[in-house]
Amino acid sequence: MELHQLHYFLAIVDSGTFTAAAEAVHVSQSGVSTQVRKLERELGVELLERSSRRVRLTAEGERLVPYARAAVAAVDEVRAAALDLRGLVSGTLRVGAVTGLAWPPLFDALAGMHAEHPGIDIRLQEGMSRELIERVREGSLDLAVAAWTDAAPDDLRASTVVDETLAVLVAPRHPWASRSRIHPAELTRVDLISLPPGTGARDALDAVIAREGTRVLPRWEVATPAYIEVLAARGLGVGVLNIVNARQWTTVKAVPIASPAARSALGVIWRPAPTHAARALLDRLVG
């Protein structure tokens, strides 16, 4: 088994096609295909289903992905440790952030890393919190800035940045604009504007509604907090978002939701044994 074969296999898993994987590892598509076939023969199992336009993992391949990632990461750590002994930091760093994140410390830390450690291959990817946390757990991301409800995942390390109540966002002339709080039951009778499932604010909203013994599908499901503000300001519905986000806007009124479940935390998530590069970024973010 060769290390580059594992690299090619993981490139296919992460990109979804042989073509994209070949571009990522700077090898011909036929070369990638040949090496992965050799890996399958040596392991005695088929790793990938090639019958569709988009390559998919077999059940055996899915079970072996974490081990392949661990093997590649272990070799990278040996290289990184050797460089550390020479006073350098190198390697790869995959960072995730919730879509539309506006948290300057992350970008300041990334800029500092890029300037101080140019040998590190840094990549930033956006996504929904639930997906990002799972990707940290399975190893395709080194760390992520994500949101969660209740408590942070107990199998990962976390540092909370903000932990605030959920609020409704309404236009200034909306009947709720003069209220001091909104009861959860009232949310079941209005057109809601929310982020998609898997985001911290949406998971918290669903938890609040579930306590009322019902389930509500928002009329407006949008990708970023900015869209919630735009729609709510025009009276198209009642937005639901972490109150921290709402404080920056003057076009809407933020009113807290009166429920202990109406909370959403945002923080940094990473695995218990971070890589050297991840530790260097964490030192800048959480100390």
Automatic annotation (TrEMBL):
Domain of life of the organism encoding this protein? Bacteria
Recorded hits in PROSITE patterns, A to Z, give:
HTH_LYSR (PS50931)
Signal sequence region: none
Q: InterPro entries, from UniProt?
A: HTH-type_LysR_regulators (IPR050950), LysR_HTH_N (IPR000847), LysR_subst-bd (IPR005119), WH-like_DNA-bd_sf (IPR036388), WH_DNA-bd_sf (IPR036390)
* Domain HTH lysR-type: residue ranges: 1-58
The keyword Transcription regulation is annotated on this UniProt entry: yes
Could you list this entry's UniProt keywords, alphabetically sorted.
DNA-binding, Transcription, Transcription regulation
Q: Which family does it belong to?
A: Belongs to the LysR transcriptional regulatory family.
What protein name does the entry list? LysR family transcriptional regulator
Q: Which organism is it from?
A: Microbacterium horticulturae
Q: What is the lineage of its organism?
A: Bacteria, Bacillati, Actinomycetota, Actinomycetes, Micrococcales
